[in-house]
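input
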Amino acid sequence: MLTQIRGLHHVTSLASSATGNNAFFTHVLGLRRVKKTVNFDAPDVYHLYYGDETGTPGTVMTYFPFPRAARGRPGVGEVGTTAFSIPKGTADAWAERLATFETADIVRDTRFGQARVLFDGPDGDRFALVETEDSRTPWTGNGVSADMAIRGFHSADIRLHDEGATAELLRFMGYEQTDRDGNVIRFIRPDGNEANVIDLETLPGTAPAAQGAGSVHHIAFAVENRARQLEVREALKDTGWQVTPPIDRDYFWAIYFRTPGGVLFEVATNEPGFDRDEDTANLGQALKLPAQHEHLRARLERHLEPITD
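output
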């Protein structure tokens, strides 16, 4: 069993508009844009990162906004709901706030005794705000007060035809099953960070998902550094997983592998962090390009949709 994985690092999704995506996460949810860069594999598309003040692992939602991309089709083989942590007693206030922004499909419910507010993002991406005890310091620079602001990720909900093989993988990754409610099984990484929950939702009669705007592209798990990441990679390979070599993403190193249910998992390092090329006060303001794409700066600055706030 792996001991190096601490919980979630980030979740990366697809969008259809950079400005619409930025407005939703900064103005509606109150998160900080901590990096404005590009997709390393398609540099004419932004890669936008939102999180707490410094982009602490376990707080960061990231997006590839492909202009006018068609919406994805929800289904199995994907992360169906991404959940953020909010303070206890604030679900009502959040439901009211979301309604003032005409947020789609707001629903209140409870899962495993925790009150939730579920809602759709601009591209139909499904989110939840979960009331829980959470000691993380929130970002309040976008006008959401500290007594209700998002603390970071709470969990991710993975939809599957059959949970067996993915549950076995999570156990190998150091997660423990803690509860079951109908077709949902909860796994928690003990002694992890505060984004340490994965829910597996079994939907045997549901069609496979088709990726598009609003779909989660991949989910990333955190390790402290490159040495721990290499240990994880070797252990996964020894167990039969096809894992990529480590890839430099400037703000972390990443390895990837495809899970039995079809979801793309990443294991990302907590180092070097988002302040490696910007001071904390100015995170997310300037367009930052990886060295291999710096020669494209003039063209990209003309091509990319302006984001000014």
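quick obs: The mean pLDDT is 97.
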